[in-house]
Amino acid sequence: VSVRALGARRIVTCDPARGALGVVEDGVLVVDGARIAYVGPRSQAPQVEAFVDFGTRVITPGLIDAHTHACWLGSRHAEYAIRMAGGDYRAVARAGGGILATHRAVASAREEDLAAALAARLGRMATLGVTTVEVKSGYGLEAAHEKKQLAAIARAAGHRDVPAVVPTFLALHALPDSARAHRAAYVDRVAGELVPEVARERLARFVDAYVDAEAFTIEEARAVGNAARAAGLGLRLHVGQFADIGGAELAASLGAVTADHLEHVSPGGIEALATARVAAVLLPMASVSLRQPPPPVAALRAAGVPLIVASDANPGTAPTESLPLAMAFAVHAYGLTPEEALLGATRNAAHGLGLGDRGLLREGARADVVVWDLPHEQAIVQPWGVAKTHTVIIGGREIAAGASVSTGN
Ligand code: NIG
Ligand code: FE
């Protein structure tokens, strides 16, 4: 059936035209092909033969994970054990672990195997209610392996029952051993050759760089940011995860769409983000796993910086694939309200990926929809670590997943 209607006691549209969360009570949502044809009160809904009443199960837009490093192979369990016993993430990295450990696994892998691992991960994300995922490269580090990783991301995106994928070229993540003695030449090559090539071959929509005290400098990231702009790609930046070196100000001056992490950011940096309309991507799984204090969320909120919540899914700092878990920690550890966490994983996340037709339920929008096995949207952040979805629809297609037995909570 290409036209079908879903009824529920509570439909959370996240449509700003309907107010904060845009809740429709006793609502109906009509899906026609890949698009939403109607959302509103049952009394005004068009008559559709294929109608399913979901009763007290709440309906929301599909979740959007706007920051992941989900394309990887290998396991960093030993490093995790060391860190949990008090070891320092950056000390592990300096000793050749961390990003470089995953780099070795990715560099020696075939594109097909990387794609298969990512596709499996994406499939599991979909069962958690995630319908769009941003996936970064950044473990290839050398040109050929970065392009292989981006090709693997494109290949995985073509699988069945996976979320829509937005690929990002994480151009500067760590300096590979092969470039140790040629740092400036490495950055020049990335900015001057690789970014334009990635754009030409349409391998990514965004460029990212890790701007931090033990990562890449403001000047290095600026070169890559300018190259992204010249190539017509959007920009998102890892800033202030460990130290504030002015990354937020850089993101603002380069017209980045998002500044991600922000555990360390000054009042001036926050002001710059607000003025330039750069959204903040909050990554609670990373700061919790690193046992860091949260970013200055109250100040970001007060300045009017849009808040996005993402998983940061990666084999080191954010050992989870679950955006709902990140939302739960955004509430528990960062003090977001459940409403802010939901908007940060739907409407704001869509905006931060340049996807105006997603993250909200309205006529004409893409039919990315979750029917939760939960009675209220506030409950999404409460049951930690389980999939509480009943039905997940991605681009109008219902995926074969979700809970089949309702527990009512
Ligand atoms: O977002 N900050 C750098 N990148 C990742 C960590 C990647 C890794 O440890 O593999 C992050 O936390
Ligand atoms: Fe990250």
Question: Key terms for this structure?
Answer:
binds N-(iminomethyl)-L-glutamic acid; alpha/beta; 16 strands; binds fe (iii) ion; eight-stranded parallel β-sheet; globular; 21% strand; 14 helices; 409 residues
Structure, described:
The chain has 14 helices and 16 strands. Helix 8 links the parallel strand 10 and strand 11 (258-261). An eight-stranded parallel β-sheet has the order 6-7-8-9-10-11-12-13. Strands 3-2-1-4 form a four-stranded mixed β-sheet, with no helix packed on it. The protein starts with a strand and ends in an 11-residue tail after the last strand. It has helices at 77-84, 89-94, 99-107, 111-127, 143-157, 183-200, 218-230, 247-254, 267-275, 284-289, 297-303, 323-332, 338-344, 347-351; strands at 3-12, 23-32, 35-41, 51-53, 59-61, 63-65, 130-136, 164-172, 206-211, 234-239, 258-261, 279-282, 307-309, 369-372, 389-394, 397-398. The protein is an alpha/beta fold. Residues 67, 69, 238, 312 line the site of fe (iii) ion. Residues 69, 98-99, 102, 210, 238, 241, 286, 312, 314-318 line the site of N-(iminomethyl)-L-glutamic acid (NIG).
Quick summary of this structure?
The chain has 409 residues and is α/β, with parallel strands linked by helices.
Topology:
Blueprint: E1 3-12, E2 23-32, E3 35-41, E4 51-53, E5 59-61, E6 63-65, H1 77-84, H2 89-94, H3 99-107, H4 111-127, E7 130-136, H5 143-157, E8 164-172, H6 183-200, E9 206-211, H7 218-230, E10 234-239, H8 247-254, E11 258-261, H9 267-275, E12 279-282, H10 284-289, H11 297-303, E13 307-309, H12 323-332, H13 338-344, H14 347-351, E14 369-372, E15 389-394, E16 397-398
Parallel strand pairs: 1-4, 6-7, 7-8, 8-9, 9-10, 10-11, 11-12, 12-13
Antiparallel strand pairs: 1-2, 2-3, 5-14, 14-15, 15-16
Bound molecules: N-(iminomethyl)-L-glutamic acid and fe (iii) ion.
